[in-house]
Amino acid sequence: MLNTRTTSARSARGDAALWTVLAAATGYGFWDAGSASLTLDLVLPLAVLAVAVPWSRRRPGAAVVLVNGLCVMGLADASTPGNAHVLSLAALSCLLGARVAEARRPLLVLAGCAAVDLATCAVLRAQPVWWFYALTVLPAALLLPWLAGRHWRGRRQLVREGWRLARGLEERQHLVAERARLTERAEIAADMHDSLGHALSLVALRAGALELSPDLTDRDRADLADLRGTIADAVEQVRETVAVLQDPPGRDTGAGLPVNDTVEDLLSRAAASGVPVRWERRGASPPLSCLVERGMYRVVQEALTNATKHAPDCSISVRITHEPDRTRVSVVNAVPSAGGPAHAGAGPASGVGRGLIGLQERVTVLGGSLRTGSGSGGFHVTAVLPHRATTAARTGTPAPGPVTAPGRPSGIHGAASPTGTARRPDPGMAPDPIRAGDPDTALGEVLPESAERLASVRSDARRRSALAFVAPVVAAVFFVPSAVYLAWQLTTSVLPPSRYDELTPGVPRTELALLLPARAYPYPPDHARSAPRPPGARCEFYRSGRDLLDEVDLYRLCWSGGTLLTKDTVPAGRP
User: Fold this and answer.
1) Would you give the distance in Å from CA 375 to the centre of its chain?
2) Nearest to 70, CA basis, from 54, 87, 56, 58
3) Tens-place pLDDT, residues 461-504
4) How far apart are CA 136 and CA 477, in angstroms?
5) All domains in the chain, ordered by first residue
6) Buried-state track 62-93, b at ≥16 Cβ within 10 A, e below 16
7) What's the angle, vertex CA 545, arms to CA 541 and CA 548, rounded to 5?
8) Which of 94, 185, 394, 473 is the most exposed place for a label (fewest CB within 10 A)?
9) pLDDT in tens, 80-123
10) Residue 541 forms beta bridges with which residues?
């Protein structure tokens, strides 16, 4: 409410200032006219301006029409077509261009005003000077200020759109930074799940082994069973938390905290905890990138975690084979017998099943492939990793690699779809619209409306610039011929003072023809026309100089029957 009142007060002050300036110009024109009418030339124009200036905000076209009516009154003046209202017409035409976005209706208003001006000249049978004024000065006062106002409006609109786009880009930068922080937190959570889940699984395995000790009492065994259950619940809670923080498939999972432990350290800790695991490494160990080392570590870690959780008493075989251009990691978990003690805990987990899905994502990003499923000897997890991360690792594009699902095995548990195929990232999935490393893509995908709006504003600005160039050319088509014709009339009606002195009254016109100009001056002022003349004489006027920008004295020659009767000088100004 307060903001609206402030805006209204500012608008009223602006209108008052504009009316004051235009009223001052009108008062100066009235004072310079001398014998002008107080009511028609001062009071009426001030009243019209008092109505037109406020209307220029709500109805700028109507305001231009009102002020153009004042200029039409000048065309009806017998002494001169020019008046001070041309300044008011130019000011309101400029406001019309600045306050109206479209161009069709304002152009119709300007064309209508020009048509009224020309029709007035035609009805009044005005002299050529009045036509020249109506064809040049009034159209210029209508069109050129309107173009200037449109240019001003377009410039302001372009600046506003630029600042709007800048604010949008700033907000996007904040969104990119926030998304990067969330991604980093998700990576940390995933690492915690892998490391902490593995450690808790080993603790649960040790607790299960202690339950079988003959030296424990029933109470101790119950406490150990509760401890093992609590650890299992903690593992599920960690899994669910990671599932909430996990990004959709297809994200870049190649970054994160470095893995300090080696695969050998991981297997040694598992064997020390009582896990029946054996491993072997074949081939010369090549230099591997950090990402590949970490991927191999996570494959073994996730396989051991699921094996100790679902089949803790079954043997686990780990084999790492180094080939010339890739490394193959194979983990086989033997299937427990139906009557074994671990059969009760070998069913599918009740968690969200992010283990093998996250593992598949990690291997795919590195440019490798992952296969899981039951086979001869138990449940197999086989990963093939390149020695160096391929383009897929840097761009986040999933590399081809089939993943088979185990269904509901009693060994390593994985999340499967109803058709028996594990869920994997969709290669056709739309990319993330906000990417810190690709600002051009982010600009095109996140802010299409702003980009289209900016292109539209630039197109409008180009059209206005073209119109601003064409309009003066069109105006020159009318102005230049009229100006040339007027200059020709003024220069060909000059009688030099030396020749004027040679003219002698009483001499026939045929003898004076060589001294006279080609034609008489056609636009003498009213006081010269109304000056006393000899009875029955016809008077002609000639200019005494070639100055086109200033008034000069006129020579009047009165003829009767082809004979010069009198000659006299008419001063340039009013007597």
Assistant:
1) 58
2) 87
3) 777 677 766 767 776 777 778 778 778 878 888 999 999 999 99
4) 10
5) 14-171+451-487 (no CATH), 178-446 (3.30.565.10), 495-570 (3.30.1450)
6) ebbbbbbbbbbbbbebeeebbbbbbbbbbbbb
7) 100
8) 473
9) 787 888 899 999 999 998 888 888 889 899 999 999 998 998 89
10) 556
